[in-house]
Amino acid sequence: xKNYHIAVLDVGKTNKKVLIYDQxxxxxxxxxRSFDExxxxxxxxxxxxxxxxxxxxxxxxxxxxxxxxxxxxxxHGATFTCLDEEGELAVPEICYTTDPGPEFQQDxxxxxxxxxxxxxxxxxxxxxxxxxxxxxxxxxxxxxxxGFYRVKHILNYPQFFGYKLTGIPGAEHTYxxxxxxxxxxxxxxxxxxxxxxxxIDLLPQEVKMPWEELGKVTPQLAKELNLSPETVVxxxxxxxxxxxxxYTIQMEGDFILNSTGTWCVVMHEQDQVSFQSDELGKxxxxxxxxxxxxxxxxxxxxxxxxxxYSKLFRRINDRTxxxxxxxxxxxxxxxxxxxxxxxxxxxxxxxxxxxxxRIIENGKIYQYQEVESGENIPEFFKDFELAYAVLNIxxxxxxxxxxxxxxxxxxxxxxxxxxxxxxxxxxxLLTALYPDSPVATTNLDEATSFGAGILxxxxxxxxxxxxxxxTFQIEKNEVERIDxxxxxxxxxxxxxxxxx
Length: 500
Known about the structure:
36% helix; alpha/beta; seven-stranded mixed β-sheet; single chain
């Protein structure tokens, strides 16, 4: 095939991107923008209509400069759209951060089943917000009954943009099977929850592989955006699974991907779905990778915590730079065992869903809310380097719990991808906690969009993504190992405060 270009629509929770890849999977151009969420009382909505209009503008611009043969879509999770007969939104697109309240949560489990039993069959953990997609659908049905009556299609977020491009509804398994309660991992079909919701006829009946063709852009859209009417649109893929794909293709043997961003997502491919008893009720679940294999996954809002505390440290100290890694300082914090930052800023999420966000200084407890407001500030927050050291230790402890629940075993390599791969202190701490496991960062700056680009290339070249192994390389930069005596004792005290 002659030279061609791939357009990737990368819909992150914070940033929306259009990236242009050449046939060698090199980024040659890109555009990025963020959109404010819309609010109505305590309801939060994604600004999906303006996001779509911006995507069209970006595609039209790039179509004048590149021979775009194919469009691949990847999006953040827990999001769906309800479309009417004309393909327009029948009800607003509810944002998964909307909190429906405890009564709604109790009502959901009364109607659809015990949360632990649902976790076993649908590999889905309970979230307090609408991060379980079935909860979002149930919420919409109750909140907008007239609008829901007009729904013709319920589409996952990647396939919504695919539908806007092609006019064809579709589904693929990485999104259907990502903590939705809608997919039964035992029978490999839509779950009993989906049947009880009464939505089976509204869901795409065929669930395809993410690199398969959804369709071609509509003639009207091709004309509007200066695209060829033969421009292919792939099925799309969930963003965490897009990030995992390059590693699945390249890595030989067992490994764990520590994908870090607003959500830190620890992923470990396994042969079958299995939960330990202490994992039930926790934020531990299974994704489905691009090839249909289960991926044990544990998540927490590490990037959100890092950014939230960073704003505090910078405001309090009137500094903006990120401090370097001072091993002696970290050793002092660990040996003294007097300073702690406890999760979770967003209660009900992560590996410690019942924990209130607190700061401990010499036994004194500060609630996060009073510190954030400036009402009461721990003394060590006024020491810029020290505050960051305590924060990084907290994030690594949370990561270690996620790694354990994802099934790490002795010697399994850990790859840090995303924002934290540039956090030298964080990755060095991981080497101290896992002396038998190599810890490495990689050269993938845009792993999510790169994974989506691989799908597009596989489609155009009529191969599976596994057959593209020789077309790219992942450079692994192993982190130098350090020793931190007393780290396990510090973690024990951290856990003791959590239990109080």
